[in-house]
Amino acid sequence: MKVVFLPLILLVSVSMVVFGIQNPQTVNVYFLGIASGEVSLSLVIIISALAGATLVGLFSGWDRIRNALDKRQTHKQLTLAKKQHQEALQQISTQSEEITKLHERLLELEEQHTTSAEKATKGAVPSTKVSPADKRTQ
Fold it and tell me: What is the pTM assigned to this prediction?
């Protein structure tokens, strides 16, 4: 960007000097009802250019300050979001571990249940009682 602006600034400056040399007459300047009297046209042009450059500098500086503040705010928000993301990942990891432990415990309980059910069916004594329906058929 500076490579583009430097030739442009030089071109405008040289143009102003040439204009001032070619227009050496004096002019009356009126501003807010105040008359300056006879002033060189070159001086009026130089003062106007300096005032314009000052305003551009002030607006540019204000814009830089605002951008820096926005950048700082964005950086803070990004840092906070990264921290929250890390905390969320940690919570997910912890909950995943808890789920794995609960799943292992469930498998253990199912195995114990299956084992105790098998023992109950192996150790069960066949019933010798005859049901009333069986007595009728005999």
Answer: 0.47
